[in-house]
Amino acid sequence: MADKFPGTRAEAPAYLARYLNRKKAKSNSKSQKEGDDSSWVSRARGKAEARARVETEMDEAPPVRTEGYARVTVSPRELIFPDSYRERMNGTTDVRLIRHGQTQGYGTNAGLTQLGKWQAHRKGQNLARGLKDGSKVVLINADTARARETAMGVQEGLMQGIARYKIENIEIIDPFSMENFRNLQVWCDGEEKDPTSAFVKYDTVLEEYERKKSGDRPGWLDEIDRFWKVQAGGGDPIAYWLNQPLQYFEPPAIVVRRFWRGIVKTIKSNQDNENLRVFVCTHSGAIRAVATSAVGHDPGEPHNLEDVRIRVFSDMKNAIITYRGRGTEIEIPTINSPTWYDLSNKD
Predict the structure, then answer these.
(1) Which of 164, 168, 176 lies closest to 281 in space, CA to CA?
(2) Which residue spans within 78-118 are E strands per DSSP?
(3) Rg over CA atoms, the chain
(4) Which is nearest to 312 in space by CA: 139, 126, 88?
(5) For a Cys staple, 187 with which of 106, 165, 248, 257, CB 3.0–4.6 Å?
């Protein structure tokens, strides 16, 4: 059989490596416990540790065993602002940039897993607790399957929470996509694509170049190759994008600017209600760019359904951004683009 199916792979397949690691860990734990009495206390502790590992480490854990995941679907701890801020915050519009739920994969435009759908539903229930009678909720999503399904799950959770908490006269706008809140874009062989769609193109073209050995690769292919190799090596590709000037990726500053365009546009078109809430289901890269621009450093990758909260003052000039227990007041970027963003007149 070895002659019939030759191979050069030295390392064990992933499933076999995981099995060997479990077997090794099991044997080590047994050797450490030799001589210990097998009391019911030790057995109970072992079972508790096993449950904790299931809740925090299993990627495919079903919703009935996901207490550990529930923590990341809860909104960040509320900050206690000084009285001077609290007076100014009367009449602010509450905007939340929410990362999508757990997805089936990033190789294609895949939707959510069952866990991801549960996360979205739970998030909606939690957000309903902050609504007042007569509120208006606008639900927006990026133009991807995982963001769209997240918005739908949040809507279902909101409606269930509204009924549970007996909140009256609530208007919920059905989820719709808005170009301002799409994922960061990659200039991919003459087309704008989000990183997931760009990966499919990259993988196809890269295979063709390697098969034909057809000369130098184009610049966009090299940049996407470096971007994905950061992730393949266990690094953070979004941190790489935030800190590395890239010629074929949409710059973080542009992403932040178009997000603010979308926020201002949405608020202005819904000024008929004083209790306006805007919930945007989008992607982690763009959310991190908005948070980084506010606090001055990268505050880290948001968990699935974790959000960045933005309170926009009524004068539409300033806003308070809160993320992971930290609040920062910023000046909203001007809507009129500076001339350096238009390169057509620079030639």
Answers:
(1) 176
(2) 93-99
(3) 24
(4) 88
(5) 248
> Rounded distance, CA 25 to CA 145, Å?
39
For 201, the token pair is 């193109």
**pLDDT at residue 67 in the model:** 45
Higher pLDDT, 44 or 346: 44
Check residue 335 and give its pLDDT.
61
Contact 78, 282 (CB under 8 A): no
Residue 318 CA to residue 329 CA, distance in Å, equals: 7
**Average pLDDT of the residues in 215-242:** 87
Dist. CA 278–CA 225, nearest whole Å: 36
Rounded Cα distance, 239 and 298, in Å: 8
Burial class (CB within 10 angstroms; exposed 0-12, middle 13-18, buried 19+) of 333: middle
User: Which residue has tokens 């191979």?
Assistant: 7
d(CA 205, CA 207): 5
Residue 215 has pLDDT above 90, yes or no: no
**pLDDT, tens digit (0-9, with 9 covering 90-100), for 177-202:** 999 999 999 998 888 988 888 888 88
Best CA proximity match to 273, nearest among 88, 152, 138:
138
CATH topology of domain 83-184+251-338: Rossmann fold (3.40.50)
* pLDDT at position 261 over 80: yes
Residue ranges of domains in the chain:
83-184+251-338, 197-243
Return d(Cα 161, Cα 154) in angstroms, integer: 10
User: What H or E segment, with its residue span, contains residue 212?
Assistant: helix 195-212
Q: Write out 154-205 in H/E/C secondary structure.
A: HHHHHHHHHHHHCCCCCEEEEEEECHHHCCCCEEECCEEECHHHHHHHHHHH
Whether 69 shows a pLDDT value over 50: the answer reads no
pTM: 0.75
C-alpha to C-alpha distance for 117 and 307, rounded to whole angstroms: 16
Does residue 1 surpass a pLDDT of 60? no
